[in-house]
Design a protein that fits this description.
This protein is mainly β and about 850 residues long. The protein contains 8 helices and 58 strands. The strands form 14 sheets. Strands 5, 7, 8, 10, 11 and 12 form a 6-stranded mixed beta sheet that branches. Strands 29, 31, 32, 33, 35 and 36 form a 6-stranded mixed beta sheet that branches. Strands 38, 40, 41, 42, 44 and 45 form a 6-stranded mixed beta sheet that branches. A hairpin with a 5-residue loop joins β56 and β57.
Length: about 850
């Protein structure tokens, strides 16, 4: 760092080696090969500024300057060796003839106030100069030295040189001995001191070319002054060389003359003073502030103090107070003041929208900046409030100005209620016109309307109206049939507008519907001919009318099933529509015609299509059957299947039969039933059946009348009637029936003992015989083969049974005819069955 600074060193001059005395008390360092000798001698230095002024700083005192500084090295003190050389010279023997020597001037510099120094550098002369601009401002320390290097010539060299310098041999001879003596003394000293060094003192230098700073603080701006006293505070500062003095003058009168202590530890200072109205002229005065630092830099500040007691006048332009706009609003300020550049305008712009208030902008600008220019542009819907005031440098304030305006870019609205657009109503029309706006402004609603009927189009008068609220409703009534169009247009105070149109029709006349068909169907009629049913519909507004047909099938549980639902479109004012039903069933057919107004008319009819004969299925179950008795149930018509009502007649053996009468006489019967339903469909059914009320008879073979049997014999059970069958036969509880409807059973008697036989038999008429017999097998007296009999086992019949009577008559007839037949034949007679 020091070496870099040294390269900027300026002019160095060489003055030579002069013999002279010392000017400053410093020390001398004598360096030799065998050591150093210290002498109380210093190198003198002269200091000169670039303006020619010589400077003599006090010991250890820094030199402050903003000019070039030159350091000139003085002649050195004479060392002892040179005293002998001078004496020889006085005897006309010059020192050059006695010594060989060289003198070098050197410097070492520090740019950090003496903390570090550069290497010793040759000056090339005896003058060292620091020039501002070639070195940076800063705190420097510099020191100098002279180095004298020498040696004594030999006697031959000295005598030769001396001889050459003396032309008179007599003088030489006279002084030669004296010279030789001095030479030897010089030689003796030279052997101890081959070199001589002498140093200067250390010189401190503060180079400062920068002006001191000045800061003026007042309790009001002094450029525009009301005339009251102004408190002023002047702060001066100089970091490098510190402030030296401060002078303040108002016009020619000195107000402040202050000198600062340069030894103070602070690099700045301040001074307070007061400007009074008495010290100023009517129009003000010129204030001069001068500050100098210790390097001689002087900063001069001039200010003009003015008197102003007139407040500024301002006004806001670009909008009317309480005006309403639908475009962005440019607000500007118009202001007047004698000194517009010194007037500050403070303004605040507030915006309120949907109940939320915000400060859009709040700032202060010079009147000269905003005069006749756009201050700001208000953009966006909302209520705006501008508050503005101005104050000049003298403290005069204007009257505050407020401006209220509104931006409304949202168009008002209008709609219709009570009647839907495109609708057709069947009553008096009540149309509500609803107008609304986002602000409570004045807005106007204008209405126009027209009505079309078969006689053409005519205008209708609807009253306009004006409102000042956010929402309004007006009601209009329409009573005549026709097609209406109503237009509503609403415009708010900002000029925003909106319109809407509604179209509707009033139709109070319902369509006409009638049934036309070739069968002349009537309600609840039953027919066996597939009908084609036609409907005639009449509607003046047939283009918008609709005809809906609904065909339902009605089930047995009276539930309705929708089969068809065609929608018919009318092509003319009177239209005919037909539908054909060709599937049996009970139906309900309805046709409804409706216009857009909701007027409806319809016709419906219920009928039954029955093309199937009655089903007399009940009596089919009797054909070729055996039954105990016969009786047709009450309400026999319910047993004849048909989808409509049925009339019937019954015949039993070709004779009328009344339902409910029971036939229990055994025999063969023929039953005929004739039926006709409500549609005229006829059916007939004839069946044959046999009434049989007698229970089965069991024939026992292989057992005595008393129930005794032999061991290992077999009892055979059989049935008298070949169509009868055993349901169960048990021997001592063991079932012997092995197949359904078994007609013969054999019972083996393997052991002696008592046997119980349980018998259950049935005929085709389901007459049941239930009987238990006892058998006994004993070993005391075997049963003779001749005592076994075949006998018929039957249950006790109720007296007067037809079968017993019939058998008795047969026996009696046989006896009368003249034959004696064994009584046993009574048991062997079999009744002949009819359906073998």
């Amino acid at each position: 760092m020091v070496m870099k600074a040294m390269k900027l060193i300026g002019i160095i001059g060489l003055t030579g080696l002069l013999i002279g005395g010392l000017k400053h008390n410093t020390r001398v360092v004598m360096a030799a090969e065998k050591g150093a000798v210290t002498a109380d001698k210093v190198l003198g230095v002269d200091i000169t500024r670039s303006d020619g002024v010589c400077i003599s700083p006090k010991d250890k005192e820094a030199l402050y300057t903003n000019m070039a500084i030159s350091y000139t090295l003085n002649p050195s003190p004479v060392p002892e060796l040179f005293e002998y050389a001078l004496k020889a010279n006085e005897k006309n023997a010059g020192a050059d003839s006695l010594l060989d020597y060289k003198v070098t001037c050197q410097y070492s510099i520090s740019s950090d106030a003496g903390e570090t120094y550069s290497e010793w550098t040759d000056l090339g002369g005896c003058v060292f100069t620091l020039i501002p601009g070639t070195v940076a401002d800063g705190k420097y320390s510099v020191k100098f030295r002279k180095v004298l290097e020498y040696s004594v010539k030999s006697q031959e060299e000295a005598i030769g040189a001396y001889t050459e310098s003396i032309s008179d041999n007599k003088v030489y001879e006279k002084n030669r001995k004296e010279y030789e003596k001095n030479r030897k003394k010089a030689e003796s000293v030279s052997s101890k001191e081959p070199a001589h060094i002498i140093e200067s003192a250390v010189f401190s230098l503060i180079l400062d070319t920068t002006l001191p700073t000045v800061e003026i603080t007042t309790d009001r701006d002094m450029d525009i002054w009301t005339g009251d006293n102004i408190k002023c505070l002047v702060k001066v500062n100089d970091t490098l060389s510190k402030p030296a003095w401060l002078r303040v003058t108002l016009d020619d009168e000195k107000i402040v003359d202050e000198t600062f202590d340069k030894n103070a530890s602070m690099s700045g200072d301040e001074k307070e003073f007061v400007l009074s109205a008495e010290s100023l002229k009517d129009d003000g005065g010129d204030l001069t502030i001068e500050v100098s630092d210790n390097a001689g830099n002087v900063n001069v500040i001039k200010r003009t103090v003015k008197i102003d007691k007139t407040p500024p006048a301002i006004d806001l332009d670009g909008a009317q107070n309480r005006g309403i706009y639908r475009e962005p609003v440019n607000i500007s300020i118009k202001g007047e003041d004698a000194h517009p550049g010194t007037v500050m305008v403070e303004y605040t712009l507030k915006k309120t929208y949907e109940g939320n208030e915000e400060v859009v902008e709040s700032t202060a600008k010079s009147l000269a900046q905003v005069k006749d220019d756009v201050l700001f542009t208000a953009v966006g819907d909302g209520d705006y409030l501008v508050e503005c005031k101005a104050s000049d440098m003298a403290g005069n304030e204007s009257v505050p100005v407020k401006l209220f305006f509104r931006i409304d870019t949202i168009a008002p609205g209008v709609n219709f209620t009570g009647i839907n657009d495109g609708s057709v109503i069947s009553r008096e029309g009540e149309l509500k016109v609803n107008a609304f706006d986002n602000y409570e402004n004045d807005y106007t609603v204008k209405l126009t309307g027209s009505m079309f009927t078969g006689n053409g189009t005519k205008d209708i008068r609807l009253a306009d109206y004006k409102t000042d609220g956010k929402y309004s409703v007006n009601t209009y009534y329409f009573r005549e049939d026709g097609e209406y169009t109503v237009n509503a247009s609403v415009t708010d105070a900002a000029g925003n507008s909106y319109d809407d149109t509604i179209s509707f029709s009033i139709d109070t006349v319902a369509p006409a519907v009638e049934i036309v068909n070739g069968l002349s169907l009537k309600e609840d009629m039953v027919t066996n001919v597939a009908p084609e049913i036609s409907f005639r519909v009449k509607e003046a507004n047939y283009e918008t009318a609709g005809v809906v047909c609904e065909l339902y099938r009605i089930g047995e549980d009276n539930k309705r099933e929708l089969l068809k639902s065609p929608e018919w479109t009318m092509s003319e004012e009177t239209s005919v529509f037909s539908i054909t039903i060709d599937e049996e069933g009970s139906y309900e057919l309805s046709v409804t015609a409706a216009d857009l107004a909701g007027n409806t008319a319809g016709k419906s009819i219920k009928f039954t299509l029955d093309m199937t004969k009655p089903d007399i299925e009940y009596v089919e179950n009797l054909d070729k059957k055996y039954i105990k008795s016969f009786r047709l149930p009450d309400n026999f018509a319910d047993y004849i299947k048909d989808r409509s009502g049925v009339n019937y007649k019954t015949y039993l053996n070709s004779m009328n039969y009344d339902e409910g009468r029971e036939i229990d006489e055994d025999g063969k019967y023929v039953l005929k039933v004739s039926a006709v339903d409500d549609a005229g469909n006829q059916a007939e059914k004839t069946v044959e059946f046999i009434v049989d009320s007698q229970k089965p008879q069991v024939v026992i073979d292989g057992m005595a009348d008393d129930g005794s049997v032999n061991k290992d014999d077999t009892i055979v059970l059989s049935l008298y009637d070949q169509d009868d069958y055993f349901k169960s036969v048990k021997l001592n509880g063991q079932e012997l029936i092995t197949s359904p409807k078994q007609q013969t059973v054999e019972l083996a008697i393997p052991e002696y003992g008592d046997y119980k036989i349980d018998i259950e038999a049935s005929d085709l008429a389901e007459n049941i015989l239930t009987q238990t017999i006892q058998a006994k097998c004993a070993n005391s007296s075997p049963v003779s083969k001749g005592t076994k009999t075949v006998r018929t086992l039957k249950q006790n019949e109720k007296s007067g049974s037809h079968k017993g009577l019939r058998i008795f008559l047969i026996i009696l007839t046989v006896l009368i005819l003249g034959g004696t037949i064994a009584v046993y034949c009574i048991y062997s007679i079999r009744q002949e069955k009819m359906y073998q």
